[in-house]
Amino acid sequence: MKLVTYIDPAVKERRVGILKDEFVIDLNRAYVALLVKRGEAEVPYRLAQVLAPTDMIEFLRGGERTLQAARETQEYAGKLLEEEGVVEGPNGEMASYELGKVEIKAPIPRPGKIVHTAGNFREHAKEAQKAGWEFPIPQWISFLKNPDAVIGPDESVVYPRYTKELDYELEMGIVIGSKCKDVTPEGAWNCIAGYTIFNDITARDIQRIEMKNGLLNLGKNMDTFAPLGPCIALKDEIEDPHKLKMELRVNGEPRQQSGTWNLSVAIPEIISRYSVITLYPGDIVTTGTVSGVAAFRDDPFRYYLKAGDVIEAEIEKIGILRNTVIAEEKAKEIKPPVPMS
């Protein structure tokens, strides 16, 4: 199952949807319709708010109860789409939309925290060394990424006036589904809800200055520097998360090509390592990036991002996260995002 956060066209609010082929099924409304059809609940709308919430973090907090409701909803609504081409709530509310007719947002619009890993793809460390990057990239470098920097698919990465070296970093985001603390690698699987795509946008010139002082902050954390999405592929969607192709393209040109099989540490080891701090549903832990970033190429300024560039970050079985780079001056013309419901 793949879950998205989308903007309901009628009420202009963020809601959880199930991605089914070329449709988005509204989880909450379709589940209400299922409850009414079964005749199992005297107050179906109230029960659906608990078992099929409209907010993604609330959904993840529900654990197995909400997952089971989502599975039942997907089966019920999927059959309706095949037979009738539409899903409606019990009072005629729209509960399905064609994918191209709704706005898809970051699946978790504001994660609780983003624990960023660096150095776990050793190919990235090797390319840095070959390029003469001033700072070593040992395994298990970590830092917190700013949750307020999150943007979703088709939203704009703002090129700040403070940098001349804007770079991309394709990573997989591991979505935490249950609270965990000091878990073993074996136990870590139970803490994972699913996977998404993460692009660690970086201002290399700022990063370089900060790292001379042992810091890693503004170069990674400016507004819009955390594209995320387009969905959460739940664990049942991906048989083995260590066998996924990864590719990042800029204006159609492949820049990063690798796969999760090149991780030097397994995904449950990553979660176990960072569970020294309590991880909560809706937190995201990243894998680190693969080789091919602009900064470590022979002619980096040819490859650094520019205003107008279209970035496509793709991971097999998850999807494509597409974002366009715009200059900071143009960013002021963009309408503010829809507020959280």
Summarize the structure.
The chain has 341 residues and is of the alpha+beta class. The chain contains eleven helices and 19 strands. It has two domains: 2-104, SH3 type barrels (Roll), CATH 2.30.30; 109-331, Fumarylacetoacetate hydrolase, domain 2 (Alpha-Beta Complex).
Mind sketching the topology for me?
Blueprint: E1 2-7, E2 14-20, E3 23-26, H1 27-38, H2 44-51, H3 56-61, H4 64-84, E4 96-98, E5 103-105, E6 114-118, H5 122-131, E7 141-145, E8 150-151, E9 156-159, E10 166-167, E11 170-176, H6 185-188, E12 192-199, E13 202-203, H7 204-211, H8 218-221, E14 226-234, E15 245-250, E16 253-259, H9 267-274, E17 284-286, H10 300-303, E18 310-315, E19 319-327, H11 328-331
Parallel strand pairs: 6-17, 8-14, 9-19
Antiparallel strand pairs: 1-2, 1-5, 1-14, 2-3, 3-4, 6-7, 10-13, 11-12, 11-17, 12-14, 15-16, 15-18, 18-19
Textual characterization of the structure:
- It is a single chain.
- The protein is of the alpha+beta class and 341 residues long.
- The chain folds into two domains: 2-104, Fumarylacetoacetase, N-terminal domain (SH3 type barrels), CATH 2.30.30.230; 109-331, Fumarylacetoacetase-like, C-terminal domain (Fumarylacetoacetate hydrolase, domain 2, Alpha-Beta Complex).
- The protein is built from eleven helices and 19 strands.
- It has helices at 27-38, 44-51, 56-61, 64-84, 122-131, 185-188, 204-211, 218-221, 267-274, 300-303, 328-331, and strands at residues 2-7, 14-20, 23-26, 96-98, 103-105, 114-118, 141-145, 150-151, 156-159, 166-167, 170-176, 192-199, 202-203, 226-234, 245-250, 253-259, 284-286, 310-315, 319-327.
- The strands form three sheets. Strands 1, 2, 3, 4, 5, 6, 7, 8, 11, 12, 14 and 17 form a twelve-stranded mixed beta sheet that branches.
- β1 and β2 form a beta hairpin.
- α1 crosses α4 (64-84).
- It starts with a strand and ends in a 10-residue tail after the last helix.
- Mean pLDDT is 92; it is low at 336-341.
